[in-house]
Every structure is written in structure tokens, then in C-alpha cells.
Amino acid sequence: MLEDLRGWPLVILIVVVVVLFGAKRLPDAARGLGRSLRVFKSEVKSMQDEDAPSAAATPQIQQTSAPAPAPTVQQTQPEQPQA
Fold first, then answer.
1. Number of domains comprising the chain
2. Within its chain, how far is the Cα of 11 from the centroid?
3. Looking at CB atoms within 10 Å, which of 32, 37, 49, 66 has the fewest?
């Protein structure tokens, strides 16, 4: 994205940002953005740290062998008397 902004488009963008926010407010805005990113990163890291122990504590079911098949019962038909 930033690779596309070279030369005049980048200069125009910088001028527009300075005009909109003012030269005095830009450092404060950058500081605020930096703090926000720092808080966001720490929250993401804490969420990942909370998930890691719970995933490790989850017992894993180990199946050593396949269960034996249920015995089958063959049905026999009663013999019919012959006429």
C-alpha cells in the first residue's frame, strides 16, 4: 500500500494531514497512536497467554486399540414341515 505512494502523491498526502491536524497536534496524535498500539499488543499477548495453559491442561483422550465389534446373532428360521 505504501509502496504505491511515492513522489508527488506522498507530498500531497503529508500536506493534507498537516493542514487538517496542524503541526502542533501531530506529535500528540502520534503519541496517542503509539500508546494505543502498545495497549492493544499487551491485551492480545495476555489473551494468548490465558489460552495457552487451558489448552495444555485439557486432557487428551488416548485410544490404545479399536473397540471390539459387538457379537452378531444369527437368526434361524424355524423349519417348516413339508407336505
1. 1
2. 37
3. 66
pLDDT greater at residue 18 or residue 74: 18
Q: Is the model more confident about 55 or about 78?
A: 78
> How far is residue 15's CA from residue 27's CA, in Å, rounded to a whole number?
15
Q: Residue 65 — very low, low, confident or very high, per pLDDT cuts 50/70/90?
A: low
Question: Is 61 part of a structural domain of the chain?
Answer: no
Host domain of residue 44:
26-54
Using H for helix, E for strand and C for coil, what is the string for the chain? CHHHCCCHHHHHHHHHHHHHHCCCHHHHHHHHHHHHHHHHHHHHHHHHHHHHHHHHHCCCCCCCCCCCCCCCCCCCCCCCCCC
CA distances, 63 to each of 5, 10, 46 (Å): 58, 61, 34
Residue 72, C-alpha cell as written in the block? 452378531
